[in-house]
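Suppose you are handed a protein chain with no further information: no name, no annotation, nothing but its sequence. What can you learn? This example shows the usual starting point.
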Amino acid sequence: MAFINTPKSFSKEALPSSKLATEMQPFIDYVNQNVDQIQRALINQLTFSENIKGEVVTLQMKHNQAIAVTPKASVASAFVIGSSDEVASIRFFQTNTGALSISVRFASAIPIQARFQTNTTGQLVGIYQCRDIGGVQVGDKVSFSGFGAKANNGVALVSAIDATEGAPIIVCPKYPAVVAENMPSFVGTAEESKSVSIALLYS
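A reasonable first move is to predict its three-dimensional structure. Written in structure tokens, the prediction is:
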């Protein structure tokens, strides 16, 4: 953890000549006044929300699933200042009702519960029938677990999604080769919400 050191005022005695010190006195006074204000603010435990035109909201979020927030004013910018997992990107827009829709994409693989891996033995593409894929899209990383065949578990990149019939289907390259497997129920870990703190800057 990094900390801000307490700033020090500038002393004119450090200058090589009294003439230069006299000429620079107005500048030195200006700098020292600003340093004094910063020092007092740090001593008084300066906070973002009390000193910036905006607010900080902490949300429980899932990958690429929007949450509606009611800001206190029109929002010009939003950025992540803390999260329980690495955030790859953030997206936000203000609706015509004044609500702010916020979604984030996490960098880590999203756990998916699946029941079938229907591709045949030795194939390098896994075809998984899933319970719920949430906000997962093509290009995202997902992880599977709980299958009997080790090759059917692990992290993979989503290359295709088909949600037209019943449970959604995820297709992804898998190395080593997958094995056809039909589990009696959905296995693996479901995605859990993660805590994300977001700074909202007002217009």
